[in-house]
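Holo model, D-ribose. Inputs:
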Amino acid sequence: MRIALGSDHAGYDLKELLGDHLTSRGHQVEDLGTSDATTSVDYPDFGAAVGRAVATGAADLGVCVCGTGIGISIAANKISGVRAAVISDVTTARLTRQHNHANVVCLGSRVVGPVTATDALDAFLDAVPEEGRHLGRIAKLAALDDELATPIETTEVQAT
Ligand code: RB5
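Output:
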């Protein structure tokens, strides 16, 4: 699979480790940065970059890392078509692929150790998205993307 990878400085070391792991599993990894652990950068830039790669089809899946996994997941989820999930164990990793059809997974380098992170990523990649009752829910998530793309009707406020 083609997997886009991104992190901020806090997630850099874990990103590198996961990137090497993915390559060793035969995946084609596109590393979108950041490029070191010491230069402070902003996680929205990297979450959005990974999200765009997945949403445009340049990558099949995305992997994001920041300190908690949360900030970078919020950023990735701003991109229409992205279903980014924070995972912290093999169960959340497996279920978010099976049930939510997550296409980006986010990990917190300050939350999970390297072994748990690697196991969780493997569980995510090995899981198969389930159909049945989940398809309608995924369609509702896609409808929310459309809703966000529609300008919100504004009501004129009368000055008093
Ligand atoms: C960076 O210090 C930290 O705030 C960031 O990596 C992340 O945890 C935000 O959600």
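Residues 8, 10, 43, 66-68, 70-71 surround D-ribose (CB under 6 Å). The chain has six helices and five strands.
Archived with the compound record.
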